[in-house]
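TICKET #2291
ISSUE: user wants both folds in one file
ATTACHMENT 1:
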Amino acid sequence: MTTTTEQSIALLLLIISQLPGIGPSRARALVNRFGPTPALLEADYDALRQIPGVGETIARETAERLASPAWRQKAGETAAEQLARAELLRATVVTILDPAYPPLLKEIYDPPLLLFVRGNPDALRLPSLAVVGTRKATAYGKQATEFICREMAGNGYAIFSGLAYGIDMMAHRAAVESDGVTVAVLGCGIDRIYTDPAGRLWPRILERGAIVSEEWIGIKPEPGNFPRRNRLISGLTQGTLIVESDIKGGSMITAACALEQNREVFAIPGSIFSAASRGANFLIQQNQARPVFSAGDILAELDPSRNPAMKQTGAPEPLALNIEESCIVEALQSGAMHIDLIADKTGLTIDALLVHLFELELKRVVEQEPGQIFRKRTQRST
């Protein structure tokens, strides 16, 4: 098989990534000094210790490993295995020296040397918004996420999130169902999509968007990976929207990363009585996030020139409902109610109700709250 220049550079960077003590910043310093060529692997102690940020201890240990045929052979085999696994997944290894590397990501303090990308790498270069939030999303949070993401996708913005349960999943789903682009940023290898094992969502993400990670293929979703993942979500995008989050959590880490990276932070206000909204409300209170009520609020900051021409989604076309579904919707006109009360009002059995309510949820006419309580969805217009 013919090896391209990009593959040769990826192989080299995968090799030096295995050097102890050589993180992304030191690796970039090595590449700047020796170039992305095999000459880098011939660097000796005297040359290495002259590089800013590489002290005597790391220079000595690095020189010893580079001079070891056994270490170089093993590191080369491991790197080649990663490229082979990427090929099997039809994935792309995008290096920081590649023109396809996301320009926004290059601006952060510690951009990764490589990204493993399944799907369309060009999706990483589109106008973009990160949307993150709690795994224990409320009905309000899910509806707000869908409302904002559909508008942003309709205005040409790629939606980035972490493919976690709750708000993340809703953000991705809203984007794909609006025929938009969405990118899932993982804290594990791109082959380990543990939150969607049945493949209900991630294949649709790959149709127009991408699944991306800096973690090597095969890496499990360890807790220590996720703070690094969070900085990628914010670093890849122009702004970050916090939908629902408690005071502590991954979403708040992502917001902190966005602020450090000098990116815009937005938050959806929530009830003062809801733990799920404490983080978002806190960010707004501290003037660290702009309150958001529609996609227009976000576009006004990210792209003011486009905001006046913001595409309007308009009211959805009426859905065709059967007789039983229409009776259920009519019963819910007065407000949320328990399934037993719905049964009394409609005359339907509980078993039949569960089937019809599930269909109405899929049609986005009804939403369920904890305790088998159902309500008619509120339709917001732009």
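ATTACHMENT 2:
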Amino acid sequence: MNAAPSTGWRRLLPRTLAARLALILFAGLLLAHALSFALLFSERYMATRSMMLTHLDQDVAVSVALLERLSPAERARWAPSLERRTYRYLLGPARPGVPLTSERAREVTALIDRSLDHRYRLQARTVSTSPECFEVQLTLADGQPLTIEVTPSVMPIARWLPVVLAAQLALLLLCAWLAVRLATRPLVQLADAVERLDPARAHPPLPREGPVEVVKAATAFNAMQARIGHYLAERLQILAAISHDLQTPITRMKLRLEAMGEGADRDRLIDDLEQLLQLVREGIAYARSTHGATGPAVLLDLHALLDSVVCDYQDAGKPVTLGECARASLSTRPPTLRRIVENLIDNAVKYGGSAEVGVRRLDDGRMAVDVCDRGPGIPEQEMQAVLQPFYRLESSRNRDTGGTGLGLAIAQQLVATLGGELVLANRDGGGLRATLLLPVAPASTPTPAR
């Protein structure tokens, strides 16, 4: 029963830690200022009350005695001069009202009676309650009624005081926001570093600065990043070594089989050895691709590079065409980019029978290299899985179209080293579109291609 309101309130809270801390500090500062303002009003009320009672006690006896000795004409002239901020003297009867309703009114009436030494018969009544106003009537010696009108009120606040309080609150809020930003910035940097964590790419370590807890977290993250990179490099080194060492015995076995007499079994064994040798070669290629692309980035014409790749395939008799191609120059590593495009074209030709290459410029400024085919496509639920090493679709597990399951994985690894992205999508009407998204802005100063 009580969980629903709590959940509802939590939904209203900001989602970021910095915003929540700022909200807490702002609420605390607001409450502190409200308390200070309340104490200020209370102090001013007490001071005003004490001042009014003190002045009234000293002033009433003198003022009434003065009015007693003046003629009626002179009283009318002097009465306004005797007026104070919270009370004044009126020559006439009191207005209709009700008996006194507040303790303060009764206390002031008693004070007036004592100040006059109980020489007058006082009639006190409340005229207004909001704002509070009460009148005390007495009769002078010549029979003229005299009314003391009392309107208790707090001393008025200076006009500059709310401005000063608002400026103080704004200044404290700004300081609190800066403090929260400084406190949470290391956490934001740590979160960004975790999101960018990629063992296949080198990243600078987090700076070890700030509070002790932040330094410990940054140190632990740097150590974890180094361990992951070391383990991955060791694993890939083992994979590359095994794959490399397997090539020699496989080659010897193939030579011995070729020296044997012709036959169906001999041809099948040679075919199996060819597939095994291809698997070993692609295993070495995958291990090397995870170490990233080497060499400096150069500025090249993307259309010229793709035209060269497509012409090489056409010279080899492969059904590969170059479609609509936007002109663009970008900073990249040509050997790595060429190898990615070749892997995508090989995959399209193997499973789709042909490939069409094109280039588009996206709205965000990136260049999109499309390699399309009209093959069977890939089921949506397996679109990401095919980018993993050694993963093959069930329909490709046969001798004719088998493959090793490393072509797209190698392309994915190499794309990451260029700071790009590989996106697969099925085409309308059948087939697959492999899109290579490349950033145009160089990561460093490029070397012009010669």
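RESOLUTION: both attachments delivered.
EXTRA DETAIL ON ATTACHMENT 2: Residues 1-6, 395-400, 442-450 have pLDDT under 50 and may be disordered.
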